[in-house]
Design a protein that fits this description.
Blueprint: H1 3-31, H2 38-51, E1 53-60, H3 72-81, E2 83-89, H4 95-102, E3 108-111, H5 115-118, H6 127-134, H7 142-148, H8 165-170, E4 181-186, H9 187-192, H10 201-214, E5 219-223, H11 230-235, E6 246-249, E7 252-255, H12 262-274, H13 290-296, E8 300-306, H14 309-319, E9 326-328, E10 339-341, E11 348-351, H15 358-369, H16 371-379, E12 386-389, E13 393-396, H17 403-409, H18 420-426, H19 433-443, E14 445-447, H20 449-452, H21 461-481, H22 486-502, H23 505-519
Helix pairs in contact: 2-3, 6-15, 12-22, 21-22
């Protein structure tokens, strides 16, 4: 064969291959609408991800466990909304206020501590205006709108994790969330002590004494630095601090440190310290992981955190090859135990005035507010992560206390819009100690969101007064806990109340009562 002839044959062959490739591509395009196999779905999701608009999101929570927009849940949200998020998690609680002061805000902010501050037309777009303009079919119930409507007549967010008393009552499998207190104890140590009963606070204290005597190198009770107070406040019936520092008595509200049971609570905590059952350094832990390490490494008998503490500790112990397990204490160790929840939700998403695309942003939140969106963010992908039980709750195909699995898949933590019922259903896993504890919690909980509406504006004199009082209490109450005698503890407590009153507590209480009388009418 001549060189010329060979060259012509080669050209013809290449042309034939090129025609086949073009025909194949056309065939794929023509069939793309009906191709539903898994590979096609992945290619489509990847294509959407590549063309999706990227918006910036600041999460105002230094402890937040997920820090990147990745995993199957985020991929599905991007597929449904055409939005992906570039995420920044706060380094501390001062970062967002500094960003606000400098005007250096991202497209979206997710916060629980700066809701009032960001509910400002100079900083954020009112949701009601964006809904009217871009998403008129985005329907939000009147109670949630009333809770979040500011003095200017606008609402700038809707917090997640909220539900009304009626909604809780109508959904028996919705059990609240992990934001409820609990204590877990070592089962093997209890057995070695002869399985003494723990049905009352006195029983528990007696067992802590037994642990201290028999295991002097073990810490009887280790406490999460963010959950030092809630479990025992619940036992003494201090019906405040669960979503609100206010309590109601005889139609009037007052600040929690003046609750009639606070003295009993502080005496109890001080006695735990003086007896050597809790450590002074526990009040100065650098982060909320230190207590976990004490518990899961076998250096502590009891671990105080939330209702999931036993299940989550057991998962870590098993993963690390440990040979012991924890079990939950009963929710109620006292006939006075109760919770008055003044919660109006946990955290809310704000569309800032720096936002590049307010239309897509409000439509993102509209999708997350749908039944599909709420279940996707809270449960995972239907069929893959869960199926629906006809009784009215999800059958999860994973352990919700397995933090590694939950976080790596992006389950739960992208609840930029959700509600207490959906989150509460995620907590219903028959047979787990978390579920049992939440069922007990629900029995002693009464919801009064009107207490949670006693909120001062970000630049108001009441907010300044409250901030000074809170900071003082934060510093002074440690002196009550660590007093060398009960008499010293009570003197320190009285001094703390006196300091609060000198900082304007009575004026703050008077303002709170005026606000409460106005706000509680929203729930009639």
């Amino acid at each position: 064969m001549t060189k010329t002839k060979g060259y012509k044959v080669l050209v013809a062959a290449l042309a034939f291959v090129l025609v086949l490739m073009l025909l194949s591509a056309c065939s794929e395009d023509n069939n793309s609408g009906s191709n539903t196999n898994q590979g096609a779905e992945k290619n489509n999701a990847s294509s959407v991800g590549n063309t999706a608009e990227e918006l910036t999101l600041f999460i105002d929570a230094p402890w937040y466990p997920v820090k990147e927009w990745k995993g199957p849940i985020t991929e599905k949200i991007t597929e449904k909304t055409g939005i992906k998020l570039k995420v920044t998690v706060a380094t501390d609680d001062k970062q967002l206020p500094l960003m606000i002061a400098s005007g250096d805000l991202p497209d979206l902010v997710f916060t629980y501590g700066n809701v009032s501050r960001l509910s400002d037309s100079k900083l954020s777009y009112p949701w009601n205006e964006l809904i009217e303009k871009y998403a008129p079919d985005f329907k939000i119930d009147k109670t949630r709108i009333a809770i979040h409507t500011m003095d200017d007549g606008n609402f700038y967010t809707i917090r997640n994790a909220f539900a009304t008393q009626e909604e809780w009552a109508a959904n028996k499998y919705a059990l609240g969330n992990n934001g409820n207190p609990g204590i877990a104890v070592r089962e093997d140590i209890l057995k070695q002590l002869g399985n003494p009963p723990i049905k009352t606070l006195d029983d528990f204290v007696n067992v802590l004494g037994m642990v201290k005597d028999k295991y002097p190198d073990m810490v009887p009770l280790i406490m999460d630095k963010e959950w030092i107070e809630q479990y025992f406040l619940m036992q003494f019936g201090v019906d405040a601090t669960f979503g609100s520092p206010w309590f109601e008595q005889g139609g009037k509200v007052d600040f929690f440190i003046r609750h009639q049971k606070m003295k009993d609570y502080f005496k109890f905590m001080n006695k735990l310290y003086r007896s050597g059952y809790i450590m002074a350094e526990n009040f100065a832990h650098a982060n909320d992981k230190i207590d976990d390490q004490y518990a899961t490494s076998g250096r502590a008998f009891a671990h105080m955190y939330t209702v999931s503490v036993a299940d989550s500790d057991n998962a870590v112990v098993k993963r690390e090859g440990g040979a012991f397990t924890f079990k939950m204490l009963p929710t109620s160790l006292s006939s006075d135990a109760k919770i008055i929840s003044g919660g109006v939700g946990f955290a809310g998403t704000f569309i800032t005035k720096k936002n590049k695309n307010p239309e897509k942003s409000i439509k993102l939140l509209q999708y997350l507010a749908t039944d599909e969106g709420k279940k996707l963010t809270m449960f995972g992908i239907e069929g893959e992560h869960w199926t629906w039980n006809e009784e009215g709750y999800p059958n999860l195909k994973y352990d919700p206390n397995n933090g590694q699995f939950v976080e790596s898949n992006g389950i739960k933590w992208w609840y930029l819009y959700n509600d207490g019922i959906t989150e509460g259903l995620w907590s219903y896993v028959p047979g787990t100690m978390t579920t049992q504890s939440l069922m007990e919690i629900k029995k002693i909980t009464k919801y009064k969101p009107e207490l949670g509406l006693i909120q001062a504006g970000p630049d108001s004199k009441e907010r300044t007064m409250r901030t000074k009082i809170d900071e003082m209490i934060k510093n002074e109450k440690v002196k009550v806990y660590l007093a060398k005698s009960e008499e010293e503890a009570m003197a320190n407590y009285e001094n703390m109340v006196k300091n609060a009153e000198q900082l304007g507590l009575q004026k703050l209480v008077e303002w709170a009562n005026e606000t409460y009388q106005k706000r509680k009418d929203l729930f009639k």
